[in-house]
Specification:
Shape: globular
Order of helices and strands: EHEHHEHEHHEH
Helix content: 40-55%
Radius of gyration: 15 Å
Length: 166
């Protein structure tokens, strides 16, 4: 069974994902890295050169074709805009939403312009959160509140929750 991590940029999907994969003795997959490798560009360059819609199409294609077994998969924050991609992920594992407030996200992200976040220019983190939070909840099988937690504490919460749902 795969564990698919979704959530806002900066919520800890990659950090928690690596720790979780080590704890569960399974593979770790970062879909942002797959996109960058496939298109030989940074996420930021893809967004700047192909536009938001072009990026979302590329991300959806990668997620829809992703095949993994016994892995923790960290998605990009915009994965929830990819209906075919999310359907593929949900069909092959449990989707976990790492929930974090916009205030804490802003405290964690200091490279918003170069990070490659799929958001319209001039959009605030609060606006992005408002736009995406319903989608994260729609796709989530499990929601983990990561507010004021370390990555290790978040992994422990997630492990406890997964044991309760198996």
């Amino acid at each position: 069974m795969n564990i698919i991590l979704i959530g806002m940029p900066g919520c800890g999907k990659s950090t928690v994902g690596v720790l979780l994969a080590k704890s569960m003795l399974c593979d770790f997959v970062d879909t942002d890295l797959i996109i960058q490798n496939k298109y030989k560009k940074s996420l930021c360059d893809i967004i700047n050169q192909d536009g938001l819609q072009g990026f979302k199409e590329k991300e959806n294609s990668v997620l829809a074709q992703l095949k993994a077994e016994n892995a923790v998969i960290a998605t990009g924050g915009s994965a929830v805009y990819c209906p075919e991609g999310m359907e593929n992920l949900k069909n092959n594992g449990r989707v976990v939403y790492l929930k974090l407030s916009p205030e804490e996200i802003k405290g964690r992200i200091n490279n918003i312009t170069t990070r490659g976040i799929a958001m319209k220019e001039g959009t605030t983190i609060e606006e992005l959160y408002d736009e995406r939070s319903a989608l994260y909840e729609k796709y989530a099988d499990i929601i983990i509140d990561c507010e004021n937690t370390t990555p290790e504490e978040c992994v422990n919460k997630l492990m406890e929750n997964l044991k309760a749902h198996i």
